[in-house]
Amino acid sequence: MTEQLSLATSPQVETAAVLEFRDVGLQYRMSGRPMPVIEHISLSVGEAEFVSIVGPSGCGKTSLLRMISGLNPVGKGQVCFRGEPITKPLSSVGIAFQNPVLLPWRTTLQNVLLPLEVVPTHRRQLKNQRSRYETMAQDLLATVGLEDFQHHYPRQLSGGMKQRASLCRALIHQPELLLLDEPFAALDAFTREEMWELLQRLWARSQCTSVLVTHNLREAIFLSDTVYVMGPRPSQMVYTLKVDLPRPRTLDMCFTEDFHQMYTELRQHIQRK
Ligand SMILES: Nc1ncnc2c1ncn2[C@@H]1O[C@H](COP(=O)(O)OP(=O)(O)OP(=O)(O)O)[C@@H](O)[C@H]1O
Question: What ipTM goes with this model?
């Protein structure tokens, strides 16, 4: 059963669902036998909502994200984007992973522009309006403090800088959905916190409906409107936390009583097998 905690400081506005899981199940085959991973997951993500998924290792968080992207077929039930079941990879999705994988022979700017060359609907537009898109990319790079590194190559960037460039790349085609799979897991604690503020800024600017998978509960609370906790495999959603901290959020908020209480609630609901 899903419980709910609401630490209301301001009422949340209900928005139309952009993304819906309708009684979703998923299983893989392991040594020739079916292995159920996800069972009976139903949830709904509103327009411009920021949602995080947390849960024990191996519970199926990445699998859930892959079903949204259309890269993993849905086993049972439906995952719907704007009311339509997702049956193939979505072009209006931006994705950032733990490893930023920038192409080493391309500059930062060229790496950010890459999705426009790959997504067929944008390819022609890029050809016709290259300078417009370059300005958009430079704008994004400036938002994340990389304006002076646009002509540098990945080998000349730190880990945090690469991840910032990767976030810009995920947003360059103005996706309707942003999917983030532990994007800051490889960064040191201070850089990671800087990235929270920066991602918050990018999200506020793009108003992109976002789903973050993370093991870091503070990160989930800091960034999210809603945090979903998955149980151990075969996983169901075991807890939903509505985060009503005012925005923009600051790192100081992580030390408040409200924040600590939410952290404790989440911690108590993460079960290990
Ligand atoms: N393509 C696949 N084929 C078979 N099994 C898979 C496949 N992908 C994932 N699994 C298994 O499904 C389970 C869930 O994997 P998934 O990566 O979705 O979990 P996760 O919660 O993201 O894990 P972590 O937190 O450790 O990154 C794991 O036991 C994994 O080994």
Answer: 0.97
